[in-house]
């Protein structure tokens, strides 16, 4: 009888933990770097690193490294193909000996930009092929993403940035997640800016609040790819 009661209490405890979505009531943080490195008139290399935490400065959640080749069709249209590696701790709690999941991701992307009065709009369409390794099992998943972003310059130095991004699964449940974001930005130099913002990340059964600190650095590297003239 005691064993049955103990088992019942353990079962109810597990159900309670799952129902509360551990970490959902914590303010986590994402620290990010993005780069668009111009190598020719039409081509640039995308570089990106993100470090995500369940709490503001601790409790590792995810590391994401992404790169890609951009083709600039014109100043307002960019096509990209690339690859990402993601290392994820899927559990808010820290367990000894737990194994993080690994993901290799291929993506295709198209960006369109336009301006309405002082508002700068960006539409990003992305397809992803995800190859997941959970240690004992593997899986392949596909999804589509659409992000609409609006930037409002306040001065030559300060700006506001907002976006909403919808994730659609191309298998199983259609809705993946939705990210709603708002930030204040600072133009440090002509090719470098910083954003400090807040994101509400909504899943089908949970909502997470995340602070975001992002650095954008877009150097022009075309000089490195041109032959240097020598004196005769």
Task: Set out the fold topology.
Layout: H1 2-20, E1 27-38, E2 43-53, E3 60-74, E4 77-88, E5 101-116, E6 119-133, E7 138-153, E8 158-169, E9 175-189, E10 192-203, E11 207-217
Parallel strand pairs: 1-11
Antiparallel strand pairs: 1-2, 2-3, 3-4, 4-5, 5-6, 6-7, 7-8, 8-9, 9-10, 10-11
Provide the descriptors you would attach to this structure in a database record.
signal; 1 helix; 11-stranded mixed beta barrel; disordered N terminus; single chain; globular; 63% strand; DUF2490; Lipocalin; 232 residues; 11 strands; DUF2490 domain-containing protein; mainly beta
Short description:
The protein is mainly beta and 232 residues long. The chain has one helix spanning 2-20; strands at 27-38, 43-53, 60-74, 77-88, 101-116, 119-133, 138-153, 158-169, 175-189, 192-203, 207-217.
Describe this structure in words.
The model is unreliable at 3-20 (pLDDT under 50). The chain has an 11-stranded mixed β-barrel with strand order 1-2-3-4-5-6-7-8-9-10-11. It has one domain: Beta Barrel (Lipocalin), CATH 2.40.128. A hairpin with a 4-residue loop joins strand 7 (138-153) and strand 8 (158-169). The chain contains 1 helix and 11 strands. The chain has one helix at residues 2-20, and strands at residues 27-38, 43-53, 60-74, 77-88, 101-116, 119-133, 138-153, 158-169, 175-189, 192-203, 207-217. The radius of gyration is 21 Å and the shape is globular. By secondary structure, it is mainly beta.
């Amino acid at each position: 009888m005691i064993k049955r009661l103990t088992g019942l209490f353990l079962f109810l405890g597990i159900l309670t933990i799952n129902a509360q979505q551990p970490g959902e009531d914590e303010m986590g943080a994402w620290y990010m770097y993005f780069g668009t490195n111009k190598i020719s008139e039409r081509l640039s290399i995308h570089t990106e690193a993100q470090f995500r935490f369940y709490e503001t400065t601790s409790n590792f959640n995810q590391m994401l490294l992404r790169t890609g080749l951009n083709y600039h069709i014109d100043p307002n249209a960019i096509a990209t193909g690339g690859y990402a590696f993601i290392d994820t701790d899927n559990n808010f709690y820290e367990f000894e000996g737990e194994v993080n999941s690994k993901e290799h991701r291929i993506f295709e992307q198209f960006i369109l930009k336009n301006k309405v009065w002082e508002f700068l709009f960006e539409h990003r369409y992305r397809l992803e092929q995800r190859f997941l390794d959970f240690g004992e099992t593997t899986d392949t998943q596909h999804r589509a993403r659409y992000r609409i972003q609006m930037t409002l310059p306040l001065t030559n130095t300060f700006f506001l940035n907002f976006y909403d991004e919808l994730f659609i699964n191309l298998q199983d449940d259609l809705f993946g997640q939705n990210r709603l974001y708002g930030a204040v930005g600072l133009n440090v130099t002509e090719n470098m800016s910083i954003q400090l913002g807040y994101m509400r990340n909504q899943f089908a059964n949970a909502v997470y609040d995340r602070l975001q600190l992002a650095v954008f650095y877009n150097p022009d590297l075309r000089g490195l790819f041109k032959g240097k003239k020598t004196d005769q």
